[in-house]
Amino acid sequence: MKNYRPLLMILICVLSQFVSAQRGVRLAYIDMDEILENVDEYATASQLLEQNVEEWKKEIEVKKMELKGREEQLQAEKVLLTPELIEDRQTELDIFRKEVVDLQRKFFGPNGQYINQKNKLLKPIQDQVLSIVRQIAQERKYDFVFDRSSDLVMLYSSKNYDISSLVLQRINTQKRLNARKKELEERKAALEKRKNN
After folding, report:
1. What's the whole-model pTM score?
2. Is 24 left (phi over 0), alpha (psi -120 to 50) or beta?
């Protein structure tokens, strides 16, 4: 009987490997756009960011109109100016043109205010969604979770693999729990205040 134990252990190991290999890959997907549309904080942050973008565009447009006005003024006065004055004015225009480009870069460049504010306002909400997706994937043992709204081309997807509603449900649960904690802390502080009076 002792001779069969190593053989039996090897057989069990081989069979367990075979069974786990036959399990297949577990997939799920989310629709990040749908999730974010239903999160109030994301809508508020997006609206604030959009207001800032509009202000920046207006500021840039004013500078561009001022630049165009200066260029037209130079063209109109060219016949009256000496070559040195024309060159000086052209240099001033080049400096102003560079200021306009720098302003555009400051607002919308790779390290501009748009990117910084987008990261500051929207990234925490996106991180919360991704954290919940990771939790669900680990709980339900998904091998891959795709984002349907990303650049990944999904030609067909069955609705029973969509976990977007589950993610939204967990976000709302977290929001209610946080609101409840805050309410309890406020009540506790009010009770402490009454005791001290």
Report:
1. 0.61
2. left
Q: Count up the domains in the chain and report the number.
A: 1
Q: Is 18 a member of any domain?
A: no
Instruction: For residue 172, give the CATH number of its domain.
Output: 3.30.910.20
pLDDT digits (tens, 9 = 90+) for 20-47: 555 677 778 788 888 888 888 888 888 9
Domain that holds residue 127: 23-196
For 29-98, the three-class secondary structure string (H helix, E strand, C coil) is EECHHHHHHCCHHHHHHHHHHHHHHHHHHHHHHHHHHHHHHHHHHHHHHHHHCCHHHHHHHHHHHHHHHH
Is there a domain that residue 11 lies in? no
pLDDT at 159: 67
Let me know if residue 16 belongs to a domain: no
Indicate whether 137 belongs to any domain.
yes
> What sign for the dihedral angle of Cα 158, 160, 161, 162?
positive
CB-count burial class (<10 Å; 0-12, 13-18, 19+) for 122 = middle
